[in-house]
Amino acid sequence: MNVARISIVGGGIGGLSAALALQHFGFRVSVFEQARELREVGAGVTITPNAMHALHFLGVGARVAKEAGPTEAYLIRHYQTGDVIKVRANGTDYVQRFGAEYHQVHRSDIHTALAEAVLRNDPDCIFLGHRFEALTQDSECVVATFANGKTFTSDVLIGCDGGASKVRASVFGDVVVNYTGQVAFRALMPMASIPDGIAKMPFAMFVGLRRLVLHYPLRHRTIMNVIGVAREPRWQEEGWTIPAAVEEFADLYGDFHPDALGLIRAIPPGALFKWGLRDREPLQQYTKGRVTTLGDAAHPMSPFLGQGACIAIEDAMVLARAFAAARDFAEAFGIYEATRKQRANGVQLASRQQADENQGVTPRGANPGANADDRGLYLYNPVTVPLAAAAS
Ligand SMILES: Cc1cc2nc3c(=O)[nH]c(=O)nc-3n(C[C@H](O)[C@H](O)[C@H](O)COP(=O)(O)OP(=O)(O)OC[C@H]3O[C@@H](n4cnc5c(N)ncnc54)[C@H](O)[C@@H]3O)c2cc1C
Fold first, then answer.
1. 162 C-alpha to ligand 1 centroid (Å)
2. Is residue 305 within 8 Å of 212, Cβ to Cβ?
């Protein structure tokens, strides 16, 4: 393989998974992250069996599982009556069905597990304070330029810089971005602040017309993760760290069951954030020359199937296997794209559709609480899925 050095732009869950998977197969990577310190936002993320296969293969699955604690059954509840509409399997059932677990994880726990594993392999491979700005490529190499004035030359570059990817824009131009008309809220709450009706609950999602709110415990039930997504026609900013007022959240959910509303009202001051969800079309091509894209940079995912991070981990595993199997980088990128595009773009589009089903506005009628399991998504194993031949 004619690849001595691989640049990865973005040190989120996708970028670090790609780094670890490529290192596993003996490749040398350099990760460039815009943030000055390695950290994730305070929020939960569900890591489902399809992604756990890769995390176990890469040696970080057991740690992620240990920090998360056991996964109980999860409930879909009617937004007004509070009645349980569906009960979903617990973590043990998933192991029996798919050979790997389903975990609710603090984002920083999975991020730290990945970062530490990457740095154990190569203590000098992560460059913080490097905001990617532009690139040039030719038949020899790709040169990335960063906002701090530095440049870096490598054989190939992988854009893992999220939904608003600058790498994607550099090689494919700007894509159309629409505000979805959905605003998301997130909060992490200490378990001691959770009202009694909710405190002992497993994962539960209240589904109502045009709105949903869900909560699940993290870190052995010491923290509660709360997420709400509501239709809100007024334009909202993108980003994970915009502070929000509890009254704004509560006002949108005024007709919800007292358990749901009580939970929202109990969010401590300063703990609530909001952002407007953006919609971008899937890329029809992930790769151009020496540059490819991965995770949200390739297929920006809405949260309604809880799969964006999992699909980024799948991408990373398959990309690294493609590099291990190919004769040169062009073949590796071809295998990666041919193996991944239908799967990842399909999940992106399914996630968009799931918003309408959870919020009862689909013409097909509500299918509240349908999830990635109903769509057969957990059957995919990125460690063993056959690699497709690169398109000629
Ligand atoms: C409310 C909500 C809930 C979700 N829940 C789940 C869930 O339960 N399960 C799940 O699997 N997914 C979930 N997701 C989706 C998931 O969070 C994303 O799909 C996932 O984080 C994508 O990973 P990524 O590494 O591709 O991008 P990101 O996580 O966005 O990481 C991108 C990284 O690149 C860096 N970066 C950006 N620009 C630059 C630049 N110019 N130069 C250098 N670095 C840069 C960023 O700082 C960041 O570190 C959820 C999303 C939302 C919004």
1. 5
2. no
